[in-house]
Amino acid sequence: MNKPTTQDAFDTPKVTTGPLPGSRRVYTSPAAAPDLKVPHREIELHPTANEPPLRVYDCSGPYSDPAASIDVEHGLARTRTDWVLERGGVEAYEGREPSPLDNGGATGKYLAREFPVRHRPLRRIPSPAGGGSGWGANGAAAASGPDGITPPQPSPQGEGAGKRHLVTQLEFARAGIVTKEMIYAAERENLGRAAAMAGAAERRADGEDFGAEIPEFVTPEFVRDEIARGRAIIPANINHGELEPMVIGRNFLVKINANIGNSAVASSVEEEVEKMVWAIRWGGDTVMDLSTGKNIHNTREWILRNSPVPIGTVPIYQALEKVNGIAEDLTWEVFRDTLIEQAEQGVDYFTIHAGVRLAYVPLTASRVTGIVSRGGSIMAKWCLAHHKESFLYTHFEDICDIMAAYDVSFSLGDGLRPGSIADANDAAQFAELETLGELTKIAWAKGCQVMIEGPGHVPMHKIKANMDKQLAVCGEAPFYTLGPLTTDIAPGYDHITSAIGAAMIGWFGTAMLCYVTPKEHLGLPDRDDVKTGVVTYKIAAHAADLAKGHPAAKLRDDAMSRARFEFRWQDQFNIGLDPETAKDFHDQTLPKEAHKVAHFCSMCGPKFCSMKISQDVRDFAAGKTGATAEEAKKGMEEKALGPKAERSEAVDPSEIEAGLKAKAEEFRAKGGEVYLETGE
Amino acid sequence: MNKPTTQDAFDTPKVTTGPLPGSRRVYTSPAAAPDLKVPHREIELHPTANEPPLRVYDCSGPYSDPAASIDVEHGLARTRTDWVLERGGVEAYEGREPSPLDNGGATGKYLAREFPVRHRPLRRIPSPAGGGSGWGANGAAAASGPDGITPPQPSPQGEGAGKRHLVTQLEFARAGIVTKEMIYAAERENLGRAAAMAGAAERRADGEDFGAEIPEFVTPEFVRDEIARGRAIIPANINHGELEPMVIGRNFLVKINANIGNSAVASSVEEEVEKMVWAIRWGGDTVMDLSTGKNIHNTREWILRNSPVPIGTVPIYQALEKVNGIAEDLTWEVFRDTLIEQAEQGVDYFTIHAGVRLAYVPLTASRVTGIVSRGGSIMAKWCLAHHKESFLYTHFEDICDIMAAYDVSFSLGDGLRPGSIADANDAAQFAELETLGELTKIAWAKGCQVMIEGPGHVPMHKIKANMDKQLAVCGEAPFYTLGPLTTDIAPGYDHITSAIGAAMIGWFGTAMLCYVTPKEHLGLPDRDDVKTGVVTYKIAAHAADLAKGHPAAKLRDDAMSRARFEFRWQDQFNIGLDPETAKDFHDQTLPKEAHKVAHFCSMCGPKFCSMKISQDVRDFAAGKTGATAEEAKKGMEEKALGPKAERSEAVDPSEIEAGLKAKAEEFRAKGGEVYLETGE
Q1: Of residues B198 and B380, which shows the higher confidence score?
Q2: Is B515:B506 a contact under the CB 8 Å cutoff?
Q3: Which residues lie within the region annotated Disordered (chains A, B) (predicted)?
Q4: Distance from CA of A75 to the nearest CA of B (A)
Q5: Contact call for B539 and A500, based on CB within 8 A
Q6: What is the 3-state secondary structure (H, E, C) of B250-273?
Q7: Cys staple from B363: which of A471, A537, A620, B428, with CB 3.0 to 4.6 Å?
Q8: Residue A265: its chain B contacts at CB < 8 A?
Q9: Maximum distance among all alpha carbons in chain A?
Q10: Strand (E) positions, A117-225?
Q11: Which residue of chain A is at minimal alpha-carbon distance from B602?
């Protein structure tokens, strides 16, 4: 089955570098930490625009910066390691002894080359009362602590022998400490804008946020508070020094994740590293390495050392490889060993399917598509085979202790998510979600950051119930959903069937959207599929930001619309999510350079261009060419309604405007009635 | 500017024929009219499925039927003409004298070849009191009739001299007459199923219909009643004998429209005819010919004579060509002449921008993107230039009389729709919508069928207000929207930015969705773009049908999900909206035929296939291979919860299920509170 990856595996991965068209990577230094260089992307606009460059969020890493020297063999600069060390509380140690099994027993030409540089892992310094491993201190005490539905409380600090060093972002946040990661993430959310700019009236967007609390301006203190309340996470393993920190939460910009990973069936180390670089180039905020088969360990090391974004994994996949793919043979020891292996490498978040309880498995028996989560099906098989609760559930506190020692965030997996419209919102799915809520409280008490995974396949009318229930049972921990797909009938187009659901659930409050590519249900995504998936999900996330009323979201839409009305074609391409495709599509019908300044396009031709006619109308009304909106309005009112003096009879636009507002209310009310009368 | 279309224009259009993979076109004859042959598509499933062929809606026309003989030079069979003639009330006449201007003055090699066959047009027989042209009888009387918000009433029948022959579907519906078009459309909506089948409990879908009244089974009488109430239309010009009638309304399946049309800049007659055939092959329910430039008349004739779906146009485009593209030179006479020209050809619906009133133009002055409707901008220019209300508004009753004489349906155009997120739901847009509501009443009183066009560019949180207001002010006339696009930042992906909005507004009650292709804002769609646009909009429409709870919608999703769980790969391809793309994607990673029966795919490989593991789990629990859901459930409960006898302690799945329902309510309530407290 395995495709030999010899040649690929030994090559140095070739990655895509350089800026996007018309863009450059810029850096700002937040007042709170002037030593930080926080990246953004600036899109240069045509001089006639009389607009400053458009600032947008940037996850592409140094790869898009011509000034940065990229050496994949060496990995990215580990700047963040200094932040971790200067905070103290961590120690470098030898780390776990690598085993051939870590790479699925691959040998000789089938063994992917090791990453050339080895870094000693960091972990939490064992506390006096903490016992050997350095994790687990105060576990019990903390676990018996607060009810997770209310925000987690600080765990006791400096109380005698039990004193525990702070390591996780949650622990610092609870202790009232603002970390550099928090400052960095806040600066990104503001696009490096000053508070004054952000607050400016014209920057405000309206919106319906369904109870979210999105601030005009994101302060580091706000990030700290959201993390302390468990409403946001900064996935940031202390061993991922290459990381450019970002925040995931309902009150921040909606983020997207791109899945990569080789499988037993296809692809190589080289391909995976480039897929990661390629995914973040187009806007992937985090990347999950879902590799299975051989060479998992080495593939992951290459990815982590070159990744500026948080990397997530599903450790049970590698654990299963270690027991030759026989679910029943999985043990807590093998799993524990895998957690430590990956935590030492610097994985930022783990998907843990601890909510698949023995008693829930029968609830899936009469489903149309059974269990569609790989981790979920593996654990269900284990549970039944052993007539026991899974070791993920029984050892959950031990898992927390390990993850807390490296600040690996939880992504509590929805192993029983629906795999079809028919199975959406069923008993199995919601039973697991309630368990995830209970586990969230325990993880919080242990100092772990937590997000919750969600479906899957859900028709539009059942999407909001997922969000509402997750908020209610998981204490507002960030929700992280896969789509959901809103219909099952379009294989080959599931990036679209799911973008519909993703945009909606993002609007309702989901913090991060896991992308779906056109190959979903059919095959492994290639480079083009990854790009299509990422761009599609940037659309869904942005549509959600707009609808939620995120203050910065509308800036980009407005810049695009102005470019459209002014026929700044090059600006339209560059402001868009995919400048290359936009330009290519334009040039297919109007290739000439001249057409990129033409006041029309191939859709209508010159005579039928509505925007050109609109400007003609403005010019005509104002009696001059290049009339401004104000000049046009005055002229139009004259022409449309006659001189102000004689307007007693004529309709006054402002009256219309006012009258309409009233009418709109009246009609909404009427609409409501109609609904109440006939709705069922 | 014009690309000579010589060669193309004189070729016989080559069109795509033959069935989709695994499909055949079948026909049923409704009890109410056994002479009708109503088309459906049946997808053959693999023998192991033990399922009858899956019946789906079919708009592809005879082109997908190998038994049909296709001769584009002759056009499709004009079966429907007999239905019209046997009803009486119409007369054949010489018709308008064609003029060179009809083809933009194209001559010689630039003039596209005429369609070889000429048919004498039909029109309503002038009533004794009706005056020469045969239209306008009772106009005034009827116009002073009912308030359009309440369903339109029958116009007076058999009252002395004023007796008016019935021609439009609305007139027949009001008179209580069920036409063959209504029977035909009802049969299609039911997928030819018998009432019993349709009513079967397991066929029912839940859903949230926002006050729509979707029946379990669609009777011809229901179609008649919906049309009589103005809540649905059957666009069916009496001169479009090639038509396979379909119904557009909130209580029927959501339909989609595909735009085609050459422009001054590109494409030819041949391309346009094939684009129409290609668009309906993938599921276009209606097609709009938005041609501009030369050869408009001849291009349209070729399209109509070969089209089994309703064809819509925007007559002002051709009228503008007749005055050399100078909006100010447009006159009622030129427009009237164009209406009759196109009505005689058999166009089924006209977009008429009669809502662009003089006083509303100034409301667009301060917009970011002004007026983005071609028709809207043309009329705005005319209004200002002449300091007058447009002739579309002042002559609206005359327009009604012409359209009623041929049963051309109104698609009241939203000339002031927003062209950007910034301009959504503004005063100009809603002022026009209210006027469209007033015009709807007049058109209804004149016996005309009416639908209303909607936006455009609207962020998610402002979409529902559009639907609610349209229902309220337009008396529930069918809404027909373009998208809406939910963000402006993704040129090259606007089929996706708009599919999000289209699915939502379709769910809320929009009856037909006008597709957007990837080339929107960039160029003219080619063949691939048309297919992508159509498939994307089938997804949006189907997602809406599912969410509304249309009884037949879920059948296809469930069939797909069963095929997935049983690894019937070929069935998965064929049940999907685009079998070719699905198969191609699958084969890119797993080309071997063997892999099409493999119990895994390239995404996970054999060891990690969740569905395979799910079946293993079922088999394990039941102690046999190929265990059914029931056997598995029993086994799982034994294994998970121990023998029934000893289950006092253990969790009982049924209890969980019950408990969850209660909890779910509780949480929804809680969620509500939270929203009220913090929402703004």
Answers
A1: B380
A2: no
A3: 1-26, 125-163, 629-654
A4: 28
A5: yes
A6: CCCCCEEEEEECCCCCCCCHHHHH
A7: B428
A8: 589-590, 602, 605
A9: 93
A10: 122-124
A11: A523
For helices B494-508 and B463-473, the axis angle rounded to 10 degrees is 50
Q: A139 and A145 in contact (C-beta within 8 Å)?
A: no
pLDDT tens digits, one per residue of A296-325: 999 999 999 999 999 999 999 999 999 999
Which residues of chain A are within 8 Å of residue B2 when distances are taken between CB atoms?
none
The DSSP string of B23-76 is EEEEEE--TT-TT--EEEEEE---GGG--PPEEE---SGGGG-TTSPP-TTT-S
Greater confidence (A638 vs A234) lies with: A234
Cα gap B486→A334, rounded to integer Å: 47
* Residue the block writes with tokens 């999985």: A330
A562/B488 Cβ within 8 A: no
Half-sphere exposure (Cβ direction) of A394: Cα atoms closer than 13 Å: 11
Taking the C-alpha atoms of residue B153 and residue B146, their distance in angstroms, rounded to an integer, is 7
- Which chain B residues contact residue A586 at CB under 8 A? 522-523
**B605 annotated ligand-binding residue:** no
pTM: 0.90
Contact A522 B586 (CB under 8 A): yes
Q: What is the pLDDT of residues A507-534, one digit of tens each?
A: 999 999 999 999 999 988 889 999 999 9
> The complex's ipTM?
0.89
| Nearest-Cα residue of chain A relative to residue B609 | A374
Q: Would the pLDDT of B592 be above 70?
A: yes
CA proximity to B139, closest of B329, B376, B371, B395 = B395
Mention every residue, 6+ apart, whose C-beta is less than 8 A from residue B626. B619
The answer to the question of whether B291 is labelled as a binding residue is no
How close, in Å, is residue B624 to chain A by CA atoms?
14
> What are the residues facing B588 on neighbouring strands?
none
CB atoms within 10 A of CB A145: 19
Please answer whether residues A670 and B476 qualify as being in contact, where contact means their C-beta atoms are separated by less than 8 angstroms. no
Distance CA A425, CA A418 (A): 7
Contact A263 B602 (CB under 8 A): yes
- HSE, side-chain direction, 13 A CA sphere, residue A576: 28
CA distance B209 to B543: 13
